[in-house]
Fold this protein.
Amino acid sequence: MATQAAMPQRRRRHRASGRQHHSPLGLVLPAVLALTVGIWAASIERFENGGVATGGQWVLGVVAAVVIGALAFGLGRIQHALPRELRALAYGALTAATIGFLTSLAGGSVLRAAGIGVAVGAGVGLVMFYYYYTHE
């Protein structure tokens, strides 16, 4: 029994560089979201223009994927610095912009795209607020 009290404890070394290491999910989730939105945008544009794949549709899909992926990645990096209300609002706004953009590509009017985007974004924002409120 006395040996347990006398055993030295291991001390963890702290990195002096200040770099944070993030989980692989922080990279995979925005990449999957970007890939999904890019393919979805390209397929909407393809079906709206007669079903033949063109270079413009591929460019639209890649640009949509890069923009949404960069925004989701950036939001994932700064989310812990935000209070829960602003964090929920940011996720709701990102969702609203994405859904509004995809709705406008599908041939909806600006008012319809904005309405659907705001409705879905408000729902996501409320769900995220509830999640953060109950888990903090």
In short: The chain is about 75% helix and 0% strand. The chain has a mean pLDDT of 87. The CA atoms of residues 48 and 120 lie 23 Å apart.
